[in-house]
Amino acid sequence: SCFWVAVLDGNVVGIVAARGSEDDNTVELRRMSVDSRYRGKGIAKALGRKVLEFAVLNNYSSVVLGTTAVKVAAHKLYESLGFKHMGVVEHYVLPGMTHSLVEKMFFQLRYHRYRLQLREE
């Protein structure tokens, strides 16, 4: 597993993590985030490419990710990196949610799954 930080002019402007799984020979791209003031500058794409590079160098067969992002730009980013949309889980529940009436009314999350096949097993 690895964690990368994007720094611009001495400021942390983005992060991403990767967690490898020996069970299915995949890397999960996790926790990608870019400071809103620096979005649209290619930072997220550079971080995503770093995870893909890590996966290739360590002979993983694919990279996967899951997101509850509602912004179209996030989904376009994943697709521009080569990820294929694999499906959606409706009414996704985040860890720690209590299923209260308020949560059911305001937190109707859709969990999107993506996969990038690097090589066949």
UniProtKB/TrEMBL annotation:
CDD domains: NAT_SF. It is found in: Cytoplasm; Endoplasmic reticulum membrane; Microsome membrane; Mitochondrion membrane. PROSITE patterns: GNAT. Keywords: Acyltransferase, Cytoplasm, Endoplasmic reticulum, Membrane, Microsome, Mitochondrion, Transferase, Transmembrane, Transmembrane helix. It is an enzyme of class 2 (transferase). It comes from the Eukaryota. InterPro entries: Acyl_CoA_acyltransferase, GNAT_dom, NAT_camello-type. Its EC number is 2.3.1.17. Residues 1-108 form the N-acetyltransferase domain. Its main location: cytoplasm. Belongs to the NAT8 family. It catalyses: L-aspartate + acetyl-CoA = N-acetyl-L-aspartate + CoA + H(+). It is a single-pass membrane protein. GO terms for cellular component: endoplasmic reticulum membrane; mitochondrial membrane. This is N-acetylaspartate synthetase. GO terms for molecular function: L-aspartate N-acetyltransferase activity. PANTHER family: GNAT FAMILY N-ACETYLTRANSFERASE (PTHR13947), N-ACETYLASPARTATE SYNTHETASE (PTHR13947:SF11).
